[in-house]
Design goal:
With 134 residues, the protein is of the alpha+beta class. Helices cover 21% and strands 49% of the residues. It has one domain. The protein has two helices and eight strands.
């Protein structure tokens, strides 16, 4: 556990965190949880849990876990801004460099193409991304 102080002098505690990832490698870092949410889709019976972390070196970590009670799918990503303004996205196996607007467009398209995605779900995604990107 390490601590840092933010601009207001508040103490921030960073802990060792490992996010499990079924499609890439597990991601380990020192960070603190900044946001989390969960929702249950009654129509398809899937529980989704999302968490956003701030790492001690300024990156954003995002995890999403979905389960229908029988199967579970866990994804995790480390996201950081490069000096060019692009985003570096790492899933523990692959690293991609992409413009921030393309990353946001891809995420919103994924939600828009999902069956039965409602406008409030898309708005919640936009709020999460705004909060994560400061």
């Amino acid at each position: 556990m390490t601590t840092k102080r933010n601009g207001s002098g508040d103490e921030l505690v960073f802990r060792n965190v490992t996010l499990q990832n079924d499609s890439g490698g597990d991601l380990s870092f020192r960070g603190r949880l900044t946001a989390e949410s969960s929702h249950y889709d009654e129509w398809c019976g899937i529980l989704t849990k999302e968490k956003i972390y701030l790492t001690d070196d300024g990156r954003t970590a995002y995890s999403i876990a979905m389960s229908d009670g029988e199967t579970k799918d866990r994804r995790a990503y480390l996201i950081e801004a490069s000096s060019s303004g692009d985003c570096i996205v790492n899933d523990g196996k692959l690293t991609m460099l992409m413009p921030q607007d393309i990353l946001l467009t891809m995420l919103s398209m994924a939600f828009e193409s999902a069956p039965d995605t409602e406008e409030e779900t898309l708005e919640a995604l936009r709020r999460k991304l705004d909060a994560a990107n400061g």
